[in-house]
Specification:
Elements (H helix, E strand, L loop, with lengths): L1 H20 L4 E3 L12 E3 L8 H18 L8 H5 L6 H12 L7 H6 L6 H28 L10 H31 L8 H11 L3 H7 L5 H27 L4 H26 L29 H5 L1
Antiparallel strand pairs: 1-2
Helix pairs in contact: 6-7, 6-8, 6-9, 7-8, 7-11, 9-10, 10-11
Length: 314
Amino acid sequence: MAAADELTFHEFQEATDLLAKTPDATTRSRNDQLTPQGHVAVAMDSGGSYGAEEEVEEESDKAALLQGEKQQPGFWTFGYYQSFFDVDTSQVLDRIKGSLLPRPGHNFVRHHLRSRPDLYGPFWICATLAFVLAITGNLTLLLAQRRDPSIHYSPQFHKVTVAGITIYCYAWLVPLALWGFLQWRKGVRERLGPYTFLETVCIYGYSLFVFIPTVILWLIPVPWLQWLFGALALALSATGLVFTLWPVVREDTRLAAAALLSTVVLLHALLALGCKLYFFQTLPPEHTAPPPQATSLPPHTLLTPTLPQSITAS
């Protein structure tokens, strides 16, 4: 009992000293809340220094942990590229509509991408265009066989590979070269502010969408109509690229801007022309007509030798 009374006296003395130093403090007895050591717990208000520092440290630790969780993953991880596929159907349709209806002063990047480029639309546009090219190219030969039975049709599956490699290389390598050139020109012209690489890829990917319905229309077996559809698709796609790139290259010299935009349009035209000539041949090379041969004469036909004119005259 003496030891218990002495412990209680020490607790009371400790609480009294704390109350003398901080009159606004409140005490809670051991009956209200048990502490690990069995002492009286003292709760301080905002003016005190007890407990407040511990709360600040706990909040700073939580903030540090949250910041660590929200850090951007590295580009070699899957989570880094997952954000570029985080788009909904309305956004993709809006960007497709913007690529199909280019207007002067209506920047595709500023009005449609809004600093959020995606790879979902360009990836599936290129895949769809590659498959449509291969399928329609085979259908062209099949329809030609129905019109001309002498043509022997065989499925050409290699066109899928050729179309895929061509479209994807164009949609990635050309934007890479363009982005690299603009980065180099940025060092020459300080006011030049190029797009990012992903924005450039997104611009080129959506610009190819107009060729998907055009390739389907190329099934119409009318040559002049096919060339007309191809010219319209090329004009729409190339115009959209020029209008989108013009705000970037206009700060450069006139010669560099004209050369760059001309190269962009020329490469786009070469892509459309190459697809038209390779995938939509009327007859493959192995089915062309053989060269004319000498006509055979009937048997027992005697050929009279012809003498030179000088001999007959003499």
